Fold:
Amino acid sequence: MKKNFSSSYVGLISIAISLAAATSACATSKRPSLEVAVESNQQIWNAVVHVGNRTFMSGPRWTGSTGPQLNVIDKNGERGAFPNLEWNNWITGKDASHSFVNINALRLEGNKLWVVDTGSPDFGGNPVKAGAKLVCIDLVENRVVHTYYFPTNVAKPGSYVDDVRFHKGKAFLTDAGHGGIIVLDLESGISRRVLENHPSVTASTERNIVLSHKVVRLPNGSPLRVNSDPLEISQDGYWLYFGALQGPWYKVRTDDLVDTTLSPQRLAASVEPFADIPPTGGSVMDAKGNLYFSDLANDAFRVRHVDGTIETLIVDKRLHWVDAPFLDREGGLWLPTPQMDRTALFNNGKSQLQWPIRIYHLAPSTKP
Structure:
């Protein structure tokens, strides 16, 4: 299946670069310049949700981020731990059942804020007991209303439960550590793994994650490889789109994913190529099916339209490793820039972060 993408990847990069030059003026005319929405000199945010008069932010513990795992800023600019201090005071050795260990993603569905906790305080480490979980917070009552814990046969040693999307009572999550998709039934709470180690969820050794013309490397010197990471669901719920961080992306029918009678072989055979997206920190899909994503290598933010064409919205050096973007109800884009490649983990133990860490806002040209 990878052969379907081998030649198109180079083509996409060429197109992306040319688009950056050809459309930057156009993009600027369509959208105002970047505005700093939130900033911090101690917290490294990779995920954001803005709804009403509140902004919610989180970031992985392993980056060196300090303070609450989940933050909220109200309309008056007051910051605090959300939903309370108890959920944000986990320390090593403490019961993780009702505390966030390492938040990696936030998702807004109606008036519910969903929080993906990898459960592992260390990058590449093992989830602690009751650490890997999906937490649902009611934003009207401001309290946790449901917590789904992933058993050890789902969130395995070395797993990194990464991101989530929903459809018809099911949650679909990626595992960036052990490549695979987690399917969770929200009514029963039962979860299972599918597409285990399939090529579609496995990071290619032929693609590197490059920022500032440098390959991102682990402490042992090997290039960083991130398995199944970004995912989206088509607006009709028919397809799940997904891929490794490095790309490319694939698609599979959601009906096939939830069909427990389908053999692993038949499910694997139903996976199809979708799009040759370059290494990306994160994505978001609008109501029309347009896929917005960050292009890590080029400090760019682009959109893949439903017809397959790619448009550059903005290229800006401040957009260094845009991670999990958020599209608000007015069509504005919220772009967290955690500078993941500059954290100590990828720089011989010495942080190269350029403070403050910022979340930017890009005003809409039209509503999504």
About this structure: The first helix runs from residue 3 to 30.
